[in-house]
Specification:
- There is one protein chain.
- The chain has 123 residues and is an all-alpha fold.
- The protein has one domain.
- Helix content is 84%, strand content 0%.
């Protein structure tokens, strides 16, 4: 069922990540948002949603779960960094941690899927 609804899950991921980014910057960090912020947040959210949909479309369930876990950890670190603020560096550290954990989850998930593919192919 999860694999059949990849478009819906991608859309939900887009909306949820856009909401979390706006929530984090506007309310947790306390910064005013301008049009460039919304454009950047929309691009990031669409990219994350597209990756999510592509992983499910190509039936890479393990990579999807690891990518989603990386995204979740990234958002947790984003909010943690925004709250602790680290002498004005909390906003930069938060955004970077979101990107790093999300990319790390994607790469690790794809590596695991590739290993499993080669193991199945050799049997």
């Amino acid at each position: 069922m999860l694999l059949k609804n990849y478009g819906k899950i991608a859309g939900i991921t887009i909306i949820l990540s856009l909401f979390l980014l706006i929530l984090g910057v506007k309310y947790v960090l306390g910064q005013d948002l301008v049009a460039q912020n919304f454009i950047a947040f929309a691009v990031i959210s669409v990219l994350v949603g597209t990756i999510t949909g592509a992983l499910l479309f190509y039936k890479l369930k393990i990579a999807y779960y690891i990518f989603t876990a990386g995204l979740l950890i990234g958002f947790i670190e984003l909010f943690r960094s925004f709250i602790s603020d680290m002498d004005g560096w909390g906003d930069l550290v938060g955004i970077l941690s979101l990107f790093i954990f999300t990319a790390f989850g994607l790469v690790i998930g794809l590596i695991i899927e590739a290993i499993l593919y080669f193991i199945r192919k050799n049997k």
